[in-house]
Amino acid sequence: MKVNVLHLAKLVNMPLKPGESEKLQAGFDSTLKAVDELKKLPTAKTKSTFQVTKLQNVWREDIPQPERGFTQKQALSQAKKTYQGYFLVPRVIDDEA
Amino acid sequence: MKLQPVIGLEIHVELKTKTGMFCGCSADHFGKAPNTNTCPVCLGLPGALPVPNHQAIDWAIMIGLALDCRVNLESSFDRKHYFYPDLPKGYQISQYDDPFCQAGKLSLASGKIIRINRVHLEEDTAKMQHQVIDGQKMTLVDFNRSGVPLVEIVTEPDIASGEEAKEFLKKLRDIIRSLGVSDCDMEKGSMRLEPNISWSESPEKLNNYKVEIKNLNSFRFAQQGIDFELKRQKELLDQGKTPVQETRGYNPQKRATFSQRVKETSADYRYFPDPDIPPIVLTREYVENLRTKLPQLPEALANEMVNKFHLSLSTAQLLSKDQLKLAYFNQYKNQVEPLELANLIVNKKIDLDQPPPAKAASRAVDPNIIDQVLKENADAVAKYRTGKTSVIGFLVGQVMRLTGGKVDPKQVQDKLLKALQVRNLQG
Amino acid sequence: MRLNQLTVIEARAGLKAKKFSVVELATACLVQIKAVDKKLHAFLTLNDRILDQAKKLDQSGDDGRPLWGIPFAIKDNFLTEGLRTTASAKVLDNFVPQYSATVYKKLIEAGALCLGKTNMDAWAHGSSTETSDYGSTLNPWNTKYLPGGSSGGSAAAVAADMCLFGIGSETAGSVRQPAAWCGVTGFKPTYGRVSRYGVVAMASSTDSPGPLTKTVADAALITKIIAGHDVYDATTSPRPVEINPNSLQGENLKGKIIALPKEYLIGEASGLILEAVKVFESAGAQVKPVTLMDPQFTIAVYTIIQRCEVSSNLARYDGIRFGHDRSSFSYEAKNRSLLGAFSLSTGYFDQYYKKAQQVRTMIIDEFDRLFKQFDFYLAPISPGPALPLGASKTSAMFGELQDVLVEPSSIAGLTGLSVPCGIISGLPIGLQITGAQFDEQKILQVGHWYQQQTKWHLEKPKL
Predict the structure, then answer these.
(1) Separation in Å, CA of C163 to nearest CA in chain A
(2) InterPro entries, alphabetically (chain A) (predicted)?
(3) What pTM value is reported for the model?
(4) How far is it, in rounded angstroms, from Cα B66 to Cα B292?
C-alpha cells in the first residue's frame, strides 16, 4: 500500500523542509511494514484497552480552582504577539480543517 | 423524482456550571476582560491535563432524558483534531463513538416528531475577533471561553421549513431553561445553531450535497435564513444545477445567505478516546436518579395548570416557561386566587420582588376552608351526590359566611365543584 | 569522597549530623558540573538561584523534611515555573512556564534543590538523547558513546555525580534504558502511580515519571515522595502509596518464583543477565524460563499507540500562546507524527490504532497470567551496552527497536527497576526486574537485596 507522506504532513500541519519528504517517505514505508506484522494476530473477539488504569468515573465537582488561575499578564507572558490583552494572530482566512 | 426540504439542526448549548468542562476556571466569561480567566488546562499549555466536570455530565444526561433519549451506560470522551487559533490543544475534547445520549425525540404542536440523533458533551473554543491593526488584517483571541461546557444536540434531518425549525428551537429552549442548566440565549451565544439544508427525496434518502449555515443568532434569523436558503437551492435545482456543498453565512440586513467556504472533502478529525480521561460507566440507578431530578417539563406543566387552576392555555404556557414567574405563582397561589394571580403576573401588573398587593390577596379562597365546609356539611354533600346540584348555592354561602364575604363567590363555586369531583372519584 | 559523590540517604544523614552545610553540598555539585558538563552536556539550563536557595535553607536550619538540602537534576520535559523548559525542542526554545509540574512541586516541598534541567531526546522521542535539538549528551563511561534516552541527561548527571539524584520520565524505557547505559539505578513506577500533570506529554497512556539514582534505596525514597493521587491528573491512582523506604531490608528471596522470558535473552547482555540469575538462585529463589509474546508484535503495538498519541499531543504547539510555530519541529517529531496521524485516520483506524489496542489487551492478559504464577521477571534492559554516537540515525524505528525489551512492561503499565549488573567493554549493563502493577515495594525490596549481594552499582565511570 502506497501512502503519501505529503498528505499526512498537511494533516498534522508540519511543514517539511526541502529534502525531508524523501527520507520521511522511506522511513514511513519501512515502519508501516514493521507494524503491519500485527495483521498476523487474530483479534476479532478481543476488546480494546485504551488506558491501563482500570479507573472509571474520575471527575471533579463543580467547584472553582482559583489556585490554578492565571492573571492576564501570566496568560499572555509567553506569547510572541499580543494586543490589548488579546493573543494576536494574522487574520485567519480559512475556517476549521 | 420529487424533492422536499430536508433540514437537520446542530445546536450547541452553553451550560451554566460554575466552572469549566475540564478545569476549575469560572465558566462565566460573558463581558469579562480578555484572557483574565484561564489556567494551564484551558490555555492548552504543555503538560496540562483535563479532569471532567461531574455537574456538566449530569446536566447533559438530564437534557438527554428530557428529550426522551436513551442514555449510554458506558461512554467516553474523544479527541477531535483540527488546527485553528481558537483551539488551544489542536484538538477539542468531545464525544464521538459513545456519546452520553442517543435516539431521542421532540414533537411539534402539529404532532410531527423530530428525532434527536444524539446529545453529547464537549468543550467550547476560544473567542476570536477580527480587526485591522496598523493596516494589517489580524485576529484577536480571547481564551476566557475556552473550556466552557457545551452540550451538542443533533437532530435527524426531519425538519421541513424555517417555521418548523423556529418552533423546534423555541420548544428546546423552553425545556432546557426549565431544567435550569443553561440560559439558552441565542443573542448572548449560550445557544447556537447550525442547520444543514438540502432538497432531498426524504430524510432517509439524502441528496448528494448539503449546505451548512452559520451565524444565525436569533430565532427570527434562523427562520429567515433557512427559508431563504431553501428558496436559493430550489432555484438552482430547477435549473438543473446542484447547489455547491459549502458553509454559508447569513446577512440579516440583506436577509440572504452568502458563501463562506467550500467544503471539498469532509475533515479527517482522527477521533480516538482521550487517554487522559478514564471512561464514564453509569448504572441504571444513577440514571433513574437523575430522571427524578427532572422538573416537570413546560408542556406537561402548562397542561396541568390549565386543569388545576382553570388558566387559559396561553397564560399557563407563559408561566411554565419562565422560572421566576413560575416560582412567584407557586409561592402565592394559596393566598391569591390562582387565576387572578396568573393574570396579574402575565400582564405584568405585579412586582415579582414584592408579595402580591393586599387587595388581591384578600380575595383568594383558602382551600382549607373549602375542605372544612365540605366536612361540616356532609349531608349537603350527600344531597349533591344524589343529583341535587342546586345545593351548591348553600355550600357557597357557608364559605362566604366563614370568610366574612371577602372572597369571590364564583371562584368559591369553582373550588367547591372541583373538590366535590375529586371526592366523588375517591368514592 | 567528595560531597557530590554521596547518595541521597548518606547526604541527608550528613546534613542532619551537621557534617556539612547545604551550601557546601550544592557547591560540590556545581563544581562537578563546571568540571565535566562542558564535555558531557547533560544540562540545558542551570538554576542560577540555587546557592541563594541553599543559603536560605542553611539559615533556617534543618526542619526534618525528607529531601531537605538535596540537589537534584530534572529532565527538561517537566515544567518548572520561572525556569526555562524546552523538552530539548527548538519549538519551546524560549518557553518559561507559568506553572510547575506536580512532581517538581513535591520535590521542592520536600526540601530538595533543583540544580537545573537536563537534556533529552527532543519531545522524549528517542532512546539515545542524540535527537535533542541541542546536541547529544555523551556517556560518562565513554564519550564516544550515547547515554541512552530519552532521559539521557539525567542519567549522565547521576552517573557523573553532578547531582545526587535525577528525575526522568518513561514512555517505554526512557528511565530504565539510560540508567542501564550509564550504570545507574532507574525506577519506573506503575502507570498512574506518579502524576503526569506538568510533564510535556508524549504517549499519554504510558508516560510514567520516575527517579534515576545511585542506589535502589535512594530510588525508593524519591518515589515515595513523588508518588500519589493528584486531583489535576485523572489517570492517577487513588490507592494509598505502599512504598516504604524504611522497610527495604528483610528480603531474602527464599521461595520466590522468578520468570525468565526467553524472548528477551537476545544480544550481548544475556550473559551477564544469566550471571545475575545465578545470584538469585543461590539465595533460594527458583528461576524458570517462560515464553512471552514475540517482540515483533509488541514493538508494533508500542510504535502505533505511542506515535498516535504523540501526533495528537504535539497538536497544541502552534506558536500562538507560547513557543515557536510548527515550522520549528525537527525531523523525528515529524517522522513519528506522520505514522501516528495515519494510524488514526479515517479508513485506517480499525486496522492500526484499534488493532494495536486489541493486541494491548492480549499483552496485559498475558502478564496477568504470568504474575499469578511468578513474583516478578528478570531480563536485560537493553540487548547490549550503550551504542556509539550516530547509531540513532540508522533506523526510522531506532527508538522503538532499542526499547524492545521494556516496551511490553510499559504497554501494560507495569512497574520495574533497572540496576547495574556488569560491564562489557567498559560500558555498563542493566538488569531488568519487573513486576505487576502496584508491586513497587516488592520490586524495590528485591532490587535493594540485589545491591547488597553485588557491587556493580558502586562502579563509577572514570571522568
Answers:
(1) 30
(2) Asp/Glu-ADT_sf_sub_c, GatC
(3) 0.90
(4) 11
